[in-house]
Specification:
By secondary structure, this protein is an alpha+beta fold. It contains 14 helices and 20 strands.
């Protein structure tokens, strides 16, 4: 196990972040995974990293604080203020966010209070977000399992934490002899798909499945489909999500019409939202229903200006490694890479031609959504059909039976 953990750490640092000698590393992680962070740090120092900042997260301390303190009191703690992210972004640090979930932990907390303190965190790290969005700050999100999370996902396992690690290693290519080659081969496939869609110059996407999804959305003129590989300002390529099996673009945020049904649960702020649907009219979410977590979904949609509009559409074949595991991870990084998904909130500047050089006004004129939040939710199924309408009006099938046909 230790050998594979070391290999995973090396892939994150070299294959994803492409970290350089004499650089600064910022690691955000769940306190329960300090053992893996020690391995990660050892390898980082061997690479030549000169400084590491540890942003330690304890979800249970956060839970108790949110439950017992007012919003103004919470803002005076050090649990939610992320100004330090700005400082390290300005210092040129590489950011590695190690995600771990605690599904349901916050279910006894007011969803409005959760939403407010989450938005406060975003407000305090605006400079980091700006540098990240402009491809200046290198960053990557990856998973590390905790005992409690593994037990929920693999509730029949006799050894859930090690089994969860093995699943992650398999999905991420760590079990391959040449992990970096496997990762690059996957990215090359995603880039080919993105290039094909860019050649089609689509104007509209129409989604239908037997869950009840019947939905259309337009794409801006000169939109760009991307994979998870980004080139940052120093010329290095990085993977911002690991693993990734999606290609994505940003839609016209004024154009969504119809209804979409979730195909997987969404764990948002450690509250589970499940079996939900959202109805859109002229780009805006006008109604939502959920069998579980409806209040949290309503507060998510109304969390900040434009959080009721869409900023991303992403295509993932049903026949993909995470989907084929037949596991619901209750963690968006993995679950979104098992299913076609869309996202409420912010658009991506690099999903429109010359978007990085556009002003806010120019982005708005192209109907790209500006928002402090960005939350993906899954709508892909094994019977999903997606029809694309090209700029010349011609229809072309993009997905059939949940998979690419182009």
């Amino acid at each position: 196990m230790k050998e594979k953990l070391e290999k995973y750490a090396e892939v994150l640092l070299k294959g994803c972040l492409n970290i350089r000698k004499d650089s600064i590393l910022f690691i955000s992680f769940n306190i329960e995974r300090i053992d893996f962070v020690r391995i990660l740090s050892s390898i980082a120092y061997k690479i030549g990293v000169k400084e590491i900042y540890y942003d330690i997260v304890d979800p249970y301390l956060k839970h108790d604080a949110i439950k017992n303190l007012s919003l103004s009191e919470l803002k005076n703690t050090n649990l939610f203020n992320k100004c330090i992210w700005n400082e390290y972004a300005k210092k040129g640090a590489y950011f590695l966010m190690l995600a771990s979930e605690n599904p349901g932990l916050m279910s006894d907390i007011s969803s409005k209070k959760l939403s407010d303190i989450t938005m406060y965190g975003y407000e305090t790290r605006r400079e980091f977000d700006e540098l990240r969005d402009n491809n200046i700050t290198p960053w990557c999100i990856a998973l590390v399992p905790t005992e409690s999370w593994a037990k929920q996902v693999l509730n029949n396992s006799l050894d859930p934490i090690n089994e969860m690690w093995d699943i992650i290693f398999d999905i991420c290519g760590i079990n391959e002899n040449d992990s970096l080659k496997a990762i690059n081969d996957n990215i090359n496939l995603l880039n080919k798909r993105a290039n094909k869609l860019n050649e089609l110059k689509l104007r509209t996407l129409i989604y239908k499945n037997n869950l009840g999804t019947n939905f259309s959305i337009d794409l801006p003129k000169n939109h760009i489909w991307n994979s998870g590989k980004e080139t940052i300002s120093n010329g290095d390529d990085i993977l911002v999500n690991f693993p990734t099996f999606e290609i994505f673009t940003s839609p016209d945020c004024m154009s969504a019409n119809g209804i979409v049904y979730s195909s997987k649960p969404l764990s948002y702020n450690n509250v589970v939202i499940d079996e939900f649907n959202i109805t859109f009219k002229d780009g805006k979410a006008i109604e939502c229903k959920a069998k579980q977590g409806e209040e949290t979904l309503i507060n998510l949609i109304n969390s900040c200006p434009n959080s009721d509009r869409l900023g991303e559409v992403a295509l993932v074949p049903f026949d993909s490694p995470i989907s084929n595991s037949n596991i619901v991870f209750y963690e968006t990084l993995f679950d979104e890479n098992a299913s076609c998904h869309i996202a409420l909130g912010a658009s991506f500047k690099d999903c429109i031609l010359n978007g990085k050089n556009m002003t806010k006004k120019e982005l708005e004129e192209n109907n790209l959504n500006e928002c402090d939040n960005h939350v993906d939710f899954m709508i892909g199924t094994k019977d999903l059909e997606i029809i694309g309408i090209k700029e010349d009006g011609k229809e072309i099938q993009i997905f059939k039976d949940g998979n690419f046909v182009i």
